[in-house]
């Protein structure tokens, strides 16, 4: 019998309900977490995970009838201070640090030490530095308490958040998508730290859309769907089939769509020859065919995004030639690429893609609104109809088109951005990490869209760090290493697409194109 089965739960949330105007966000939800356990919480965006955690953290109050039990005692959490007093800490995707303050000042925020113990005495910065140094050493930090937080990397700032939670003697730590901004090496360090905290007896609630992380870390996994508790799986019962079925109500068969006909190898819509920039990309060449889904894989820093931005014209190239439908594009801008039929979905939808303070309707129409202008006056009715049509065809979950796009879930934001690109009627579509931070239901919709575009003869390039995704959607895969295309799999290469083959090319354990064997 495992440790979690033998011990009494540290946290129990029983029959938790939450209703917002017109929406039943949580319906009789249960959650049980033990000390010394990593308990993952999964579900599609909108399933109720964030609402449940906000009730636990005191940001929301549950409706009457539910109960929260900590250490066997029923508790009332009317606000964040109540949660902190019970040893509950939450680390959100958007870190809550003050970048202009020191590490020690952030760790002690709201609990500053005062000289002489006086309530209104001068701040005891030396004492705060000593107290912070102890917890930083315990967590293996490479920076000191006097370091200004704004000078730290995202991974280091995340460590400051964890240090603050540990310093407040938190016993229940909630981590919401903590690896989204991290490299693979930073993620490995974070996992080591999470396991260390588990060994010290913390109960960790881990929220992630990434299956690989769930398999690697979890002792148990609980699943919510449409605001209701579906069930909990022990570690040895975890599988992609079981988790997907619990989250979306259907099995994994048909999850990846590859129903389009084999592409015509003679019908080249995009030709890239010896393209290079002044930094990362070093002489890349490839062709993309109409109706083909071409995957580009490689380790972080291999140059995949840089290559995509060169092809799109978002960065200058120092050499090389790009042809679209046989027409050479000299040094071109993104506007010229779009006019030629090539569009690019950025990996950073919030900073480089969407206008978060604008409506869904305006985000969908922004690239094509000039089509609706008559004598300089926009046809608003036509734009509204276009937005309604896009919402239907891409299954965007939104009450109406005038909602600000910043209020949507990650998956729905991604579909809004994708719908904007599709309104330009592209011949070539480059998708850079199209399902990053997106739940499984939205991933399935995006894969369907990619398949439908290939069916319609659009050439699609998919850049992804998730190998199952690349293997599942791509007809052919290019693998990049250190700014070069190290090899090709699938298509006419004679080499099967597999995780092993991709990793061999990406890491250099298989010779790259042009290298001596």
In short:
With 517 residues, this protein is of the alpha/beta class.
Overall form: globular
CATH architecture of the largest domain: 3-Layer(aba) Sandwich
Work out the number of β strands.
20
- Through-space gap between termini: 52 Å
Supply the number of structural domains: 3
| Uncertain regions spanning at least 5 consecutive residues | 1-6, 513-517
Average pLDDT for all residues: 87
What is the structural class?
alpha/beta
The total count of helices amounts to 18
CATH homology superfamily name of the largest domain = P-loop containing nucleotide triphosphate hydrolases
CATH topology of the largest domain: Rossmann fold
Report on this model:
- The protein is of the alpha/beta class and about 525 residues long.
- It has three domains: about 5-250, P-loop containing nucleotide triphosphate hydrolases (Rossmann fold, 3-Layer(aba) Sandwich); about 255-340 and about 425-515, P-loop containing nucleotide triphosphate hydrolases (Rossmann fold, 3-Layer(aba) Sandwich); about 350-425, no CATH class.
- Helix content is about 35%, strand content about 25%.
- It has helices at about 5, 50-55, 80-85, 105, 125-140, 155-165, 185-200, 210-215, 240-250, 305-310, 335-340, 350-355, 360-365, 380-395, 410-420, 440-455, 465-475, 500-505, and strands at about 10-20, 25-35, 35-40, 65-70, 75, 90, 170-175, 205, 220-225, 230-235, 270-275, 285-290, 295-300, 320-325, 325-330, 340-345, 430, 460-465, 475-480, 485-490.
- It has a six-stranded mixed β-sheet with strand order 6-7-8-3-9-10, sandwiched between helices.
- Mean pLDDT is about 85; it is low at about 1-5 and about 515.
């Amino acid at each position: 019998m495992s440790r979690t089965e033998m011990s009494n739960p540290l946290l129990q949330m029983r029959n938790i309900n939450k209703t917002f105007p017109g929406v039943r966000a949580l319906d009789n939800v249960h959650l049980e977490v033990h000390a010394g356990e990593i308990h993952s919480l999964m579900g599609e965006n909108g399933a109720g995970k964030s609402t449940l955690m906000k009730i636990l953290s005191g940001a929301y109050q549950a409706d009457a009838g539910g109960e929260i039990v900590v250490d066997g005692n029923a508790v009332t959490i009317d606000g964040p201070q109540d949660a902190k007093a019970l040893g509950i800490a939450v680390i959100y995707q958007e870190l809550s640090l003050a970048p202009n303050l020191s590490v020690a000042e952030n760790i002690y925020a709201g609990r500053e030490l005062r000289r002489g113990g006086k309530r209104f005495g001068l701040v005891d910065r030396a004492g705060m530095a000593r107290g912070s140094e102890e917890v930083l050493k315990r967590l293996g930090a490479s920076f000191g308490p006097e370091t200004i937080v704004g000078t730290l990397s995202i991974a280091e700032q995340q460590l400051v958040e964890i240090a603050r939670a540990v310093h407040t003697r938190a016993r229940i730590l909630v981590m919401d998508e903590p690896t989204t901004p991290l490299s693979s090496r930073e993620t490995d360090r974070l996992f080591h730290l999470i396991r260390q905290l588990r060994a010290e007896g913390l109960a960790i609630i881990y929220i992630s859309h990434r299956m690989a992380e769930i398999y690697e870390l979890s002792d148990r996994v609980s699943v919510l769907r449409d605001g209701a508790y579906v069930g909990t799986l022990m570690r040895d019962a975890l599988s992609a089939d079981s988790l997907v079925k619990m989250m979306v109500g259907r099995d994994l068969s048909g999850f990846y769509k590859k129903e389009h006909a084999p592409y015509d190898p003679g019908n080249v819509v995009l030709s890239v020859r010896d393209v290079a920039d002044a930094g990362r990309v070093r002489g890349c060449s490839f062709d993309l065919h109409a109706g083909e889904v071409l995957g580009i894989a490689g380790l972080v820093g291999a140059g995949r995004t840089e290559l995509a931005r060169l092809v799109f014209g978002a960065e200058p190239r120092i050499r090389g030639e790009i042809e679209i439908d046989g027409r050479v594009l000299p040094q071109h801008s993104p506007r010229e690429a779009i006019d030629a039929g090539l569009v690019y979905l950025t990996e950073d939808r919030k900073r480089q893609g969407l206008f978060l303070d604008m409506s869904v309707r305006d985000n969908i129409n922004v690239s094509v609104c000039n089509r609706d202008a008559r004598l300089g006056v926009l046809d608003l009715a036509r734009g509204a109809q276009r937005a309604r049509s896009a919402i239907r065809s891409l299954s965007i979950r939104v009450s109406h088109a005038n909602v600000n796009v910043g209020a949507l879930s990650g998956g729905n934001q991604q579909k809004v951005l994708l719908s904007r690109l599709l309104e330009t009627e592209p011949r070539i579509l480059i998708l850079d990490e199209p399902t990053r931070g997106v739940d499984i239901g939205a991933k399935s919709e995006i894969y369907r869209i990619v398949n439908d575009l290939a069916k319609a003869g659009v050439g699609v390039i998919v850049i992804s760090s998730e190998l199952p995704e690349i293997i599942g959607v791509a007809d052919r895969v290019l693998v990049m290493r250190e700014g070069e295309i190290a090899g090709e799999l699938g298509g006419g290469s004679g080499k099967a697409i597999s995780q092993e083959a991709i990793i061999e090319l990406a890491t250099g354990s298989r010779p790259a194109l042009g290298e001596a064997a």
